[in-house]
């Protein structure tokens, strides 16, 4: 091929084409990226660039060079003039070798014939396998290139509809339905015409189509799971503004969050694009992923004109024959649950859910998505600790790991126990560790008041010479819990959360922490103090029984507080009250926390919201618990179920928390309530609290499966026996075992 011997590397990247004369079709070729290129040198990665040649016309161009990568991303377009006999050749070259000898640096090519151009034109992105252009090319060719071809001479075609303007993030989840628009190309061969993607098909042809698709073992499933471009071929990405997206599907839902856009591929698939990040997803951002675990039988029949189908992996998707579209979102959620399902079980739409709570749930969803992108997709972080020395052993292990290792899936094991961690053991570890780590007995933290058990950093923690490393450890543990979707079983003062977010502390923040001090400072602000109070910009405080003086500003002991400067005095006093002697401790804790959770991800949260993110809900709503409980081998009328809830009602708040911790591993409830209880690690959605009646001796105690939020209860003969056995199991629980 002529283009193999005359290629020169681009200086700065070029997409200018030398055009032939004469009438022909005007097309735009967009080369998005290449994937999985072959590595031919042990110590070096290639510098790929592409050349585009229209055979026989003299048109040629090259792209910019991507340095040191096997997955280059160009997203560049070329305006070409193609006759009926012309073919387009796209070749990938390694700039490090292209100048050494003719043909060197060749990494593979594809050749799109004129008939193939017509078939794939204006149908979105397609992935082609790279191949050899002639027998003399190296045999070790590997990888794919992703391209799109669009018309440039169609009447009414606008510049902003070109594929290059419809940017695709390589980290995005790219949706497609019924048949993926894909063309395999090896050794410059195009598939037959019947390999073209199938459009939307009406109900009458469904059985035949599914049979045809099942027979094609090499074709992808009719509706892919959430995936990114580097794993699957790319479907059509042209959005259509002519379809009625919301009238029959999600008309009860509120508008999309700011920055989101709903699109439909030419094959009728509905997907959602976050314009700020470029990420596209199957999932409607207005509907919680937790709702996916609801039993479809409880949602009633599908609306008229809708049909449910299944992907090859068994996932449900929904076909709207009215609008000729497909989607993963169940249309019944909009009608019966809608967005307000997060707040309480109400059928009056979202008027009963405060706006701040809806906003917080959206923030939580966004945070979880961002954290999922930070989690390594392979490997585990394994820790083995002894229950009797959980604090010291956890301290040693957590500080030993790098932060990126702690972001891997946690696998915790208690010494001498056989339990396998699918999430429940981790929750129990964090529950026990937080009780030890935050215990004022160790001197790291102290209660803010004698009558309120909220925690703050102990300014006298320096009695332990290693106290800063322990605060670094505490910050990592708190961040680790947030990163993996767990909770810390304790609560800090509100100013602590403000400091964690980097926000200044105001006088109002001190009201709940120290009411007497708040009243005194408010009196100073509201009254004339000259001649009444003899104050200076210095305060006295006790350190290990010794009275010391601290200047609120340089030379403060000589500066009197007057009506003119009392606001400054109050501001400095409030800051000193919360930061006295704890600056270094707090910075160490904040450092450990942000090693796990980047500060940029928390900018949208306020101090009360971040408290819920870290600690969840401490109060247990028994009605919500009952409403979101699953029954196994029993019914709501079974005596065991009635006695169980009778026992729960008889328990104190502390015993209810211990029961919840016994069954789930954590005594905290998610913001959304019991409907959002976390199940096993990596599960797609939550797992409801489950009561399981088992057939065994009634002399046995109940057993808990913390990974599945399930309690196994024998068929006890009376309420008194159930109460006795369950209380004994809660109080005397000793560890995990494998059943």
TrEMBL record:
What SMART domains does this protein's entry cite?
C2 (SM00239), HECTc (SM00119), WW (SM00456)
A molecular function (GO) term:
ubiquitin protein ligase activity
**Start and end residues of each WW domain:** 254-287, 300-333
- Give me the reactions it catalyses: S-ubiquitinyl-[E2 ubiquitin-conjugating enzyme]-L-cysteine + [acceptor protein]-L-lysine = [E2 ubiquitin-conjugating enzyme]-L-cysteine + N(6)-ubiquitinyl-[acceptor protein]-L-lysine
Per the record, GO CC terms?
cytoplasm; plasma membrane
Tell me the PROSITE patterns matching this sequence: C2 (PS50004), HECT (PS50237), WW_DOMAIN_1 (PS01159), WW_DOMAIN_2 (PS50020)
What are the record keywords, sorted? Answer: Cell membrane, Membrane, Repeat, Transferase, Ubl conjugation pathway
| Compartments in which it is found | Cell membrane
Q: Where is the active site?
A: 707 (glycyl thioester intermediate)
Write out the GO biological process terms: negative regulation of BMP signaling pathway; proteasome-mediated ubiquitin-dependent protein catabolic process; protein ubiquitination
Annotated C2 domain ranges read: 8-130
| Record InterPro entries | C2_dom (IPR000008), C2_domain_sf (IPR035892), E3_ub_ligase_SMURF1 (IPR024928), E3_ubiq-protein_ligase (IPR050409), HECT_dom (IPR000569), Hect_E3_ubiquitin_ligase (IPR035983), WW_dom (IPR001202), WW_dom_sf (IPR036020)
State the protein's name: E3 ubiquitin-protein ligase
């Amino acid at each position: 091929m002529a283009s193999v011997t005359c290629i020169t590397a681009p200086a700065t990247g070029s997409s200018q084409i030398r055009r032939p004369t004469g009438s022909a079709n005007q097309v735009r070729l967009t080369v998005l990226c290449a994937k999985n290129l072959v590595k031919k040198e042990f110590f070096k990665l290639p510098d790929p660039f592409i050349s585009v040649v229209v055979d026989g016309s003299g048109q040629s161009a090259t792209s910019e060079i991507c340095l040191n990568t096997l997955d280059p991303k160009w997203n560049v377009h070329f305006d070409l003039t193609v006759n009926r006999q012309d073919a387009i050749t796209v070749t990938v070259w390694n700039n490090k070798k292209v100048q050494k000898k003719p043909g060197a640096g060749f990494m593979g090519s594809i050749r799109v014939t004129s008939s193939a151009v017509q078939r794939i034109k204006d149908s979105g992105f397609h992935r082609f396998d790279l191949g050899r252009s002639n027998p003399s090319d190296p045999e070790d060719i590997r990888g794919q290139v992703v391209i799109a071809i669009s018309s440039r001479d169609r009447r009414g075609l606008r510049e902003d509809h070109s594929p290059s303007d419809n940017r695709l993030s390589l980290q995005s989840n790219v949706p497609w339905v019924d048949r993926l628009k894909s063309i395999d190309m090896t050794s410059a061969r195009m598939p037959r015409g019947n390999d073209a993607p199938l459009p939307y098909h009406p109900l009458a042809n469904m059985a035949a189509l599914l049979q045809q698709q099942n027979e094609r073992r090499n074709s992808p499933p009719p509706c892919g799971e959430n995936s990114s471009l580097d794993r699957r071929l790319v479907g059509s990405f042209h959005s259509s503004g002519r379809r009625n997206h919301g009238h029959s599907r999600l008309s009860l839902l509120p508008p999309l969050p700011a920055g989101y856009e709903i699109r439909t591929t030419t094959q009728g698939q509905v997907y959602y694009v976050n314009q700020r990040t470029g990420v596209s997803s199957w999932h409607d951002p207005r509907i919680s992923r937790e709702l996916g675990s609801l039993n479809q039988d409880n949602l009633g029949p599908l609306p008229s004109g809708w049909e449910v189908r299944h992907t090859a992996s068994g996932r449900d998707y929904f076909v709207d024959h009215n609008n000729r579209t497909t989607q993963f979102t169940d249309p019944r959620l909009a009608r019966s649950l809608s967005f307000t399902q997060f707040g309480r079980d109400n059928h009056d739409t979202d008027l009963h859910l405060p706006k701040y709570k809806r906003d917080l749930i959206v923030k939580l969803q966004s945070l979880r998505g961002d954290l999922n992108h930070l989690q390594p997709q392979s490997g585990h972080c394994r820790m083995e600790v002894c229950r009797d020395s959980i604090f010291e052993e956890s301290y040693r292990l957590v500080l030993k790991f790098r932060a990126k290792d702690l972001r891997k899936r946690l696998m915790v094991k208690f010494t001498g126990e056989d339990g396998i961690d699918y999430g429940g053991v981790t929750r129990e570890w964090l529950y026990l560790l937080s009780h030890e780590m935050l215990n004022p007995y160790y001197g790291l933290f102290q209660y803010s008041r004698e009558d309120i058990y909220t925690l703050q950093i102990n300014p006298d923690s320096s009695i332990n010479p290693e106290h800063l490393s322990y605060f670094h450890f505490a910050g990592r543990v708190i961040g680790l819990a947030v990163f993996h979707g767990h909770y810390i079983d304790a609560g800090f003062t509100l100013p602590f959360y403000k400091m964690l977010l980097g926000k200044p502390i105001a006088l109002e923040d001190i009201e709940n922490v120290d009411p007497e001090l708040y009243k005194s400072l408010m009196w100073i602000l509201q009254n004339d103090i000259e001649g009444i109070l003899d104050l200076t910009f210095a305060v006295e405080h006790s350190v290990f029984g010794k009275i010391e003086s601290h200047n609120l500003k340089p030379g403060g002991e000589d500066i009197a507080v007057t009506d003119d400067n009392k606001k400054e005095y109050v501001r400095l006093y409030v800051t000193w009250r919360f930061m006295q002697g704890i600056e270094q401790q707090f910075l160490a804790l904040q450092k450990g926390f942000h090693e796990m959770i980047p500060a940029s991800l928390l900018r949208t949260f306020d101090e009360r919201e971040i408290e819920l993110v870290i600690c969840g809900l401490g109060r247990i709503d028994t009605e919500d618990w009952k409403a979101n409980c699953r029954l196994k081998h029993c019914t709501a009328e079974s005596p065991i179920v009635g006695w169980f809830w009778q026992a729960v009602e008889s328990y104190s708040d502390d015993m209810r928390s211990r029961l919840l911790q016994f069954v789930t591993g954590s005594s905290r409830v998610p913001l959304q309530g019991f409907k959002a209880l976390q199940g096993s690690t990596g599960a797609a959605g939550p797992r409801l609290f489950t009561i399981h009646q088992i057939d065994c001796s009634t002399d046995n105690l109940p057993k808990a499966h913390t990974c599945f939020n399930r309690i196994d209860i024998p068929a006890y003969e009376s309420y008194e026996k159930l109460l006795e056995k369950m209380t004994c199991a809660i109080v005397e629980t000793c560890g995990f075992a494998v059943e």
